[in-house]
Structures are given as structure tokens and as C-alpha cells.
Amino acid sequence: DAKTTQPPSMDCAEGRAANLPCNHSTISGNEYVYWYRQIHSQGPQYIIHGLKNNETNEMASLIITEDRKSSTLILPHATLRDTAVYYCIVRKISGNQFYFGTGTSLTVIP
Amino acid sequence: GAVVSQHPSWVICKSGTSVKIECRSLDFQATTMFWYRQFPKQSLMLMATSNEGSKATYEQGVEKDKFLINHASLTLSTLTVTSAHPEDSSFYICSAITGSNTEAFFGQGTRLTVV
Q1: A2 pLDDT tier (thresholds 50, 70, 90)
Q2: Do B34 and A98 touch (CB under 8 A)?
Q3: Inter-chain CB proximity B49 and A97 less than 8 Å
């Protein structure tokens, strides 16, 4: 079951940081926050995941609030190729399944 | 990252026929694979979880006799859409998790059109 709430769409200027919010107010202590994105007509691509600490990799940063009820995915310098639907997913540490919510359609504008 | 490959990328079939879609993990062994379907402008809907050597677990509302899943090896799972009808036309996507169970890697998807 999807347990996340995301805005349906966002725009971002090319070269600027894209900040995508996600609300997961019912998250429990044994659940991770994952982010995936899906470029049109392709399979989803893993971006990043975290439990309670902020995480950073070559693609993005994940900021999780102290109470873990929300998080923000940050793409530091958005490019046109970052235009995609971004999915925030909550998943149990010991779980298998990834249930997708409605996601945020990000459009990067030249 | 790990690579998951689906075949075919797209298929057109006649109503009433069956279609098989393959999902392979190319560089890792996947004890668990997942099958999703996605209608236009909608999110991915999990259909079933496929475990190597055992019966698949289907999500509520998914007909197991219509969507046959076989996971005969650690690198291959197949989805067969039996007696396909136009309403089965959709984008089917598989994914697999690695032994560390931390990430799911997705195939590129299969576009099924039933005419």
C-alpha cells in the first residue's frame, strides 16, 4: 500500500536545484524512504534511499526530517534529462515489495 | 547498478491468444522478482511477487489464472498473459532485488497491445 503523498507536478528551471517533497506521516521505525524516477516509457530508475540520516550520492541528496514524517529529494543542478515522474516509496527494512504511489511529474524548463 | 532485461520490448497480439514476457537478471541472481503493469498516465501497480522455485504471490484483484508467472531459475521469470483481450493492453514491467535486498532494479518494460 502506498503510504506517501507527493504533489502531482512541479517545474524547475534548468541548472537550478529541484526540491521534491514527500509526506510519509505514518512511517514506522522499521521503514526506509526510497526514491525512484521513471522517464517516459521506461522502467523506473533507482535514485537513493535512507532510514533517518540524510543521504547523498552522485545523483541526488535525500533530506529526512527529524520526526521522519517527510522528506525532500534534491537534484542539485537539474538538467532537461531529469524530466521524469519521481516516486517516493516507503518500504519495510525486512520487506520485499515496492508499492508505488502517484508520484510527482517534474518538468525541467530550458 | 545491476541490470534487468525484458523481452520483448513491445508485442502486438490478436485477441484470444497468449503472450509470454521474459524478465532476466543479467549480472546477479534474483531470488525474488516482481511484475507490475502500468496504464497510460498512471502509476505502476504491483501484480505479483515471484520467488524462485515456488508459486508466485498475487496482489488482491489480480487473476492468477490469467497472468501466469514462472520463476524457474535465479535469473529468469516469465509472465504469460493468457487469452489476452484489448483491456490487457498495457505496459508490463518487471523488477528484481539483489541478495542485499536494499534496491530493486527494473527492466525497460514491455508494451503489450492486444488487437
Answers
A1: low
A2: yes
A3: yes
